[in-house]
Amino acid sequence: MIFYATIFILSVGGIAAIIRRNREEFAAFNFAEFMEKMVREIKDFWHLHLRDQLLGFTEKRLHNVRILALKAETRLFRAAKALRGIKERNVQNGGDTNENDHGNGADLNH
């Protein structure tokens, strides 16, 4: 903690020394204009460089998520088909599903 406090004190001292040496420039400094200029530069940088890269990155990730969702859907369909096949084989082999089924497909143990 002492290390960080020392760095903080030295930083504040350095800022104070810079302000004392450049009083006129510091007094003429307008924070609102500085921020407006900074926002303009960030917007320009965003539109020139980052937007296309971010959109491309997002498109690739969404494509991968879509593929995973389709694979999961296929697995679910196959599992449902397998369960349906088991039930149909039991019915064909003489399994009695009328006692426990009640017509709603609730009993898949047969």
Strand content: under 5%
Q: What is the molecular shape?
A: elongated
Overall pLDDT confidence: 85
Q: How many distinct beta strands? A: 0
In helices, the fraction of residues equals over 70%
Count of the separate structural domains: 1
> Order of helices and strands, N to C?
HHHH
Distance between the termini: 69 Å
Low confidence ranges = none
User: What is the alpha-carbon Rg in Å?
Assistant: 35 Å
Q: Kindly name the structural category.
A: mainly alpha
Number of helices: 4
Reported for the largest beta sheet, the result is: none
Biased composition (Basic and acidic residues): 99-110
Region (Disordered): 88-110
